[in-house]
Amino acid sequence: MKPLLLLIALTGILASSIHAADIAGKWRAEFETQVGVQKYLFTLQRDGEKLTGKAASEVGDRKREVELKEVKLTGDTVSFVEDFDFQGSLIRIRYTGKVGAGEIAFTREVGEFAKEEFRAARVEPGNTAPTSANKVQAPAPQEPRIPRGREITLGPDDKPAFDDPPAGITTKRDGIPHGRLEMIEYDSKTVGTKRRMQVYTPPGYSADRKYPVLYLLHGIGGDETEWQRFATPDQLLDNLIADGKAVPMIIVMPNGRAQKDDSPGPNPMATAPAFAVFERDLLEDVIPAIQSRYSTDTNRTARALAGLSMGGGQTLNFGLTHLDSFAWIGGFSSAPNTKPPSLLIPDPAAAKARIRLLWISCGNKDGLIGISQGMHAYLKEKGVPHVWHVDGNGHDATHWRNNLWLFTQRIFK
Fold first, then answer.
1. Measured between alpha carbons, how far is 373 from 24 in angstroms, rounded to an integer?
2. Which domains does the chain have, with CATH numbers?
3. pLDDT per residue as tens, the chain (413 positions)
4. What is the DSSP secondary-structure string of 280-320?
5. Residues contacting residue 265 through CB under 8 Å, at least 6 positions apart
6. How far apart are CA 140 and CA 79, in angstroms?
7. What own/partner pairs with CB < 8 Å and gap ≥ 24 does 374-381 have?
């Protein structure tokens, strides 16, 4: 019996050594994220029983090298951490990979903000560039911000709740009244500087009337101008109001990246922590600034919050946890910054009593659909009324524009 146990133990040791030997070397990956193509070269080394590593990465025209931390190999699973310092904020990027024949299937978690899956292929000695033998096949070009390479599984509920809008919903029409679009500044105590936001006031705006307000949030690579570039909300609302389909409202498009340099920069994903900080900026600085400058109805039933992608996640995170401030909530293809539904709605009965409209949408070609599917499933299980609208688009401007058109017709009524 003892010889058999010894043989088993030796086999395990040998297997572990083989795995460690197999993992040493260079591994190349090229994969899509919300901010575009990420290119990595991982170098893993073995010194006795100790594993170390480094990574060289390239995003657009920005390159960096970093030492990998906590490199471990357990059976055929390798894991390590890449630390990224952005303006004093440490973002931990965790990798877990399954080692196979000539490749590693990785899961990459960027803090609590994003999760990607990709494969790294072994680079043979002397081969410094990817070839058909060692390069992971990149998907065909699509919309620049579509997360690709994720499996999409559709269920029976994943279908359109409404028809697509007709053509020309954002066409500027002659012969109808037009609202006003302006860029304003406000003092942000949260950030400690003046910040900008774009504001639409409806046709015939008058200080003698109190208007409801929609706060509209952008995505990870955008800013206060993104919605105007993607959807021209001023023309879209002018047309809906002229047709009697939408209530005259003010639309506020702030910059949801609450930091002094609030531009996306060369690596927008690195600014993700500032999107969480924006919760305070929105509630304590943006809304008071709008209420002091414009004639607004300050009741919660006259305030809506909606957003796309990262802004969709902000909308669900902030709106659902501040139902004393928002009654109308719309998350369009919400991103991985979205918190678990059970944390956002711990008391379904209370939420059901306060929410006037909860809108969850995503395209059936969107690699992030699982986030919205999870929200829908939880709401359905808990009996919280909501709209679940799955159209035929991807993670793209058409989906966001169409859902803004649908959503704005159903709020403040």
1. 39
2. 12-123 (2.40.128.120), 180-408 (3.40.50.1820)
3. 444 444 334 344 334 444 555 789 999 999 766 555 789 999 999 888 889 999 998 876 678 899 999 999 999 999 999 987 654 556 788 999 999 988 999 988 876 556 678 999 999 876 544 433 333 333 333 333 444 446 799 999 999 999 999 999 999 999 999 999 999 999 999 999 999 999 999 999 999 999 999 999 999 999 999 999 999 999 999 999 999 999 999 999 999 999 999 999 888 888 889 999 999 999 999 999 999 999 999 999 999 999 999 999 999 999 999 999 999 999 999 999 999 999 999 999 999 999 999 999 999 999 899 999 999 999 999 999 999 999 999 999 999 999 999 999 999 99
4. HHIIIIIHHHHHHHS-B--SGGGEEEEEETHHHHHHHHHHT
5. 271
6. 29
7. 374/340, 374/341, 375/316, 375/331, 375/334, 375/338, 375/341, 376/157, 378/341, 378/342, 378/345, 379/341, 379/345, 380/157
Question: CA nearest 271: which of 286, 289, 258, 254?
Answer: 258
Tokens of 45: 């080394």
Retrieve residue 110's tokens: 């960027």
Question: Angle between the 233-242 and 397-408 helix axes, to the nearest 10 degrees?
Answer: 30
Q: Which residues contact 352 (CB under 8 A, 6 or more apart)?
A: 383, 384, 385
Distance from C-alpha of 305 to C-alpha of 316, rounded to nearest angstrom = 9
